[in-house]
Amino acid sequence: MPREFSRSLRVGEQIRRELADLLRSEVKDPGMGLVTVGDVELSKDLSHARVYFTVLGDESAATATATALGRASGFLRRELGRRMRLRIVPELQFVFDDSELRGARVDELIEQARRKDRERGSED
């Protein structure tokens, strides 16, 4: 029977869970907001990880949190190595996931278009 998930997907999911736990319990940076780790994409050789995160707040909160995550990346990488016992612990690159903001913007534009259509319909 073939494997359902590749090794990089399984390791990425485990890294996501461990990072979420570490950020919740171990990282005490005052610049970090309420962070949610959304996804982790690993390179094929598992040496680089792109960690997508969201944060509660506006763009300034996202920028401050990205800076705080960059400062904590060495600590997080070391702790991942201890917890997961990987031979190669990937370099962590944190990327703000703005898909929720873009989705809200698209919803807003659709609602504006609907209002304009209703206004035009009542004028005719």
Automatic annotation (TrEMBL):
Molecular-function GO terms, alphabetical: ribosomal small subunit binding
BP-aspect Gene Ontology terms: maturation of SSU-rRNA
Listed Gene3D superfamilies: 3.30.300.20
GO cellular component, one term: cytosol
Name of the protein described by the UniProt record: Ribosome-binding factor A
Native organism taxonomy: Bacteria, Pseudomonadati, Pseudomonadota, Gammaproteobacteria, Chromatiales
Keywords in alphabetical order: Cytoplasm, Ribosome biogenesis
InterPro entries in UniProt: KH_dom-like_a/b, RbfA, RbfA_dom_sf, Ribosome-bd_factorA_CS
Top-level taxon of the source organism: Bacteria
Native source organism of the sequence: Acidihalobacter prosperus
Functional note: One of several proteins that assist in the late maturation steps of the functional core of the 30S ribosomal subunit. Associates with free 30S ribosomal subunits (but not with 30S subunits that are part of 70S ribosomes or polysomes). Required for efficient processing of 16S rRNA. May interact with the 5'-terminal helix region of 16S rRNA.
Coiled-coil parts of chain: none
Subcellular localization, as worded in the UniProt entry: Cytoplasm
Subunit structure: Monomer. Binds 30S ribosomal subunits, but not 50S ribosomal subunits or 70S ribosomes.
Similarity remark: Belongs to the RbfA family.
Classification via HAMAP family: RbfA
